[in-house]
Amino acid sequence: MGGGGSTRRVTFETDDNENITVVKGVRLSESLIDRMKEPSSPSGRQHPPSGAVNNEELKKRIAEELALERARRDSEAQKRRLFGKLLERERISSNEHLTRAILRERSATEEERLKAQRLAKQLEEKDRELKRHDAYYKEQLARLEERSAQFYKVTTEQYKKAADEVSARFK
């Protein structure tokens, strides 16, 4: 846009106070008008001083200023687009990173839940096994106590019988 000539035609007039009025809806700032009135010498020749600026030179300056302004706006728009694209890429990247982190956490949570279930089942199985052992040993203890009571009873009877025999013999 800034490299080629502009196809837009701008019509302007100068009023009595040497102010420039643009007719086709393009506004010019005071600083731009002042710069256009100042003489410039790209080829080394001097322009006539003060208000003796010819229309062709003024048109050329306006076209150059408009081209520079367009180039600046295009550059800013391109910067905004690139920045927008960069922000969009960053947003997408952070969303992907966040999604991966969430999936990792969900996976880890699911693994922990399954591990907890497995350990709970093992604990229940151990508890049942301990209860079976407890019941078995209580039963064994009851049998031993019953046998011990029987042996005690038999031994006591035999002792009494032996004591009675010894007493009867040695009276």
Description:
It is a single chain. The protein is mainly α and 171 residues long. The protein has a domain at 57-170. Helix content is 72%, strand content 4%. It contains two helices and two strands; from the N terminus they run ββαα. The termini are far apart. The relative contact order is 0.05. InterPro entries: MIC19/MIC25, MICOS_subunit_Mic19. Residues 106-136 form a coiled coil.
Question: Which strand order spans the largest sheet, edge to edge or round the barrel?
Answer: 1-2
Overall pLDDT confidence: 83
- Structural class category: mainly alpha
**Fraction of residues in helices?**
over 70%
Tertiary shape: rod-shaped
Largest sheet: 2 strands, antiparallel
Strand percentage, roughly?
Answer: under 5%
Give helix and strand order, one letter per element, not per position.
EEHH
Number of strands: 2
Number of helical elements:
2
N- to C-terminal separation?
A: 147 Å
Low-pLDDT ranges: 43-50
Oligomer: single chain
Compute the CA-based radius of gyration.
55 Å
